[in-house]
Amino acid sequence: MRPGAVAEEAWPERAAAAAPATPTVELVNAAASVGGRSIWSGVDLTVAPGEFVAVIGPNGAGKSTLVKVLLGLLPLSGGEARILGRAPGEANQEIGYLPQRRSFDPGLRVRGIDVVRLGLDGDRWGVPLPLVSRWSRRRKEEDERLAEVLGLVGATGYARRPVGHVSGGEQQRLLIAQALVRRPALMLLDEPLDSLDLPNQASVAALISGICRDRGVTVLLVAHDVNPILSYLDRVVYIAGGGAVAGTPHEVIRSDILSRLYGTPIEVLTTSDGRLVIVGQPEAPAHHSDRHTHA
Amino acid sequence: MIPAHVAAQGAGVPLSWDLAQDIRQLFEFHFMVNAFRAGTVVAIAAGLLGWFMVLRSQSFAGHTLAVAGFPGAAGATLIGVNPAWGFFGFCGAGAAAIAAVPRARSGTQGGGFSEESAAIGTVQALALACGFLFITLYRGFLNGVNALLFGTFLGITDGQVWVLVGVAALIVVALALGGRLLLFASVDPDVAAARGVPVTALGVAFLLLLGFAAAGASQITGSLLVFALLVVPAATAQRMCARPAWSIGLSVGIALVVTWLGLSAAYYSSYPIGFFVTTFAFAAFAATHLATAVARGRRSRQAP
C-alpha cells in the first residue's frame, strides 16, 4: 500500500504544506505531437497552488493532449514540464483525474460508491478479506473518507444505486468524488460539463469552484464553453492554432484575441454585473449533440 | 467403461422416492464422484471469471474462446493426445488472438466496437471450421462430436479432475491478487491507467484466464453450451445485486447449484447434461429478470 492512501492531516493544511513556492503546474516552451503531427508548441504556463484554471479551445486543438502530458501519459516533444515540482507522471498519486467521456453503460451493475472507492484503493494488489476487513481501522478510515467526499459532492442519496442507473449529472458528481477521494493537490478535469444540461452545468461548476476555494485544491478544467465557469476562474488558457495564450479572464477573453485564435469573428460582451459573455464561439451546443450521434 | 452410445447422454438411472437413497446412489460410482468434483471446480472458476467477463461486456469473446476448444479437442483426438491439451492449447491461442485486437471502449469517442466484434467473429468462424475439418479427417467420430459440442459428464478421469483443480486454483489465486485492479481497469480504464494500473496487461491476462476457464467448462457443458456456466450465473448475480463482492459470491453460488442440479438430473434421466445445466441456469436468470421487473413495476406504481 502507498503511504499517501490515507493521510491523517486535514486537507487545506496539506495543500498549503506542499511547498507554497513551487508552482503546481509549470510548462516552459513545451511542445506536444501525436503520431508525428505537432499539436501545439511554445506553450508557457504556470499555475499556482489553489488556482482555478480553465483550458479552452476548439475541438482537436490539443486540450486533452495537455491533460495527457500533465499526467505523463504522453511525453513532451520539446520543452519542459513540472507537476507539483516533479516530472510528469511522478506525481499522479496526488492528482485527481477525470477523463473525457464518459457515461457509464446503463447495464453496468456496480454501485456509485464502489466506483468512488476504486479511486481510493483500486490500484492496490490483493482483495480485502470479506469479514476481517470490516472491522479493520483502515477500512473505517476509508469509509469515513468516502462518506466525506460523497457528502461534499452531494451524492450520498444515490451512491448506493447502480452507477449506470443514475443521471448524467449524478454520474459526474460521483466521478468528481472519485477524483477527490485521495485528497489530491491538483484536479485535472477533462470536460466535466460536457453532456450536462444547463442547470447541471451551473451546479457542477459551482461545486468544483467550491472545492477549489474551500479545500485549496488546484483545478485545471478543460471546457468547450467557458460561459458556465467564467465567473469562478482565476485564469484561462486558450489553446488554438498550434499555440496557447494564458492570462486572467479579462486579459485573454477579449474580442480581438479570441477572434485571432479561432480565426472567426467572436464578440465578448460585459453584462451589467461585470460578467463576460462570449458570443459567436464556433462551439454552439447544437454541435455537441451532433458529434455524439456521429461517434 | 461406459458404452459409447450413452457417452453424450445421461446415465438414465431410475429414481426412487427415497431422497437419501437417491443421493447415496448418486455417489455410488466413481465416475459420478469425479463428475461432481470436476463440475464443482469448473463452476467456481466459471462463476468467478464469468462475472468479470459480463462486467467487461466481453461475452462474445468468451463464447469464441469456448468454441475454440472444439477444434482443440477434435485435433487432439485426431493426433491421439489427451483432449484436455487440445482444449487448453486452443483456448489459450484464441485468447492470444483476441488480445491482439484493440479493445473497444464504450463511452469514449470513436466506436471501435464493430471492428472488435468482427475480428472476434472471424476467430470463431475459423475455429468452428477447423473443428469440422479435424472431425472429417478423423471419421467415425460422430458420438464424440456431440460430447464435444454439448458436453458429457461420463468418464472424467482422476487426471482430468486434477488438471481442472490446478486451473481453478490458478484462477482463484490470480483474482485474489489482482481482482481489485481488474475491477478498476474494467470499470474505469482511463483513470486506472493514469493511476499506474497496467490496464492492457490486465486485459490480456484476463483473456488468457478466461480461455482456461472456458476450456475447463467446455469439458462439462461442451463447447457450445459454455455460456450456461460462464455468462448466465454472472448475469443473474449482477441483476440481483450491485455490490461487487456479494455479486461475485452469488455468481459462483449459482454456477455451483446449477452444475450440481444438472449433474443429478442427467444421472437420473436419459438426457444430456448440457441441456439440464443450461435449462436450470436459464430458469434462474428468467426468474431473477421477472422478479426485478415486478419489483421495479411496484416501485414505480408506489411513486407519486
Question: Layout of SSEs?
Answer:
The complex is a heterodimer of chains A (295) and B (304).
Chain A: H1 11-17, E1 25-34, E2 37-47, E3 52-56, H2 63-70, E4 78-83, E5 95-98, H3 112-121, H4 137-153, H5 168-180, E6 186-190, H6 198-215, E7 218-223, E8 235-240, E9 243-247, H7 249-252, H8 255-262, E10 267-270, E11 276-279, H9 285-294
Parallel strand pairs in A: 3-7, 3-8, 5-6, 6-7
Antiparallel strand pairs in A: 1-2, 1-4, 8-9, 10-11
Chain B: H1 19-26, H2 30-55, H3 59-79, H4 83-99, H5 113-138, H6 142-150, H7 158-187, H8 189-194, H9 199-221, H10 227-230, H11 232-240, H12 244-268, H13 273-302
Helix pairs in contact in B: 2-7, 2-9, 2-11, 2-12, 3-4, 3-5, 3-9, 4-9, 7-9, 11-12, 11-13, 12-13
Structural features, described:
The complex is a heterodimer of chains A (295) and B (304). Chain A is 32% helix and 22% strand. Chain A is α/β, with parallel strands linked by helices and 295 residues long. Chain A has a 6-stranded mixed sheet with strand order 5-6-7-3-8-9, sandwiched between helices. Chain A has a 3-stranded antiparallel sheet with strand order 2-1-4, covered by helices on one side. Chain A has a two-stranded antiparallel sheet with strand order 10-11. In chain A, a hairpin with a 2-residue loop joins β8 and β9. The longest helix of chain A has 18 residues. The N terminus and C terminus of chain A are likely disordered. Chain B is an all-alpha fold and 304 residues long. Chain B is globular and about 60 Å long. The chains are: A alpha/beta (295), B mainly alpha (304). The interface between A and B is large, with 37 and 35 residues.
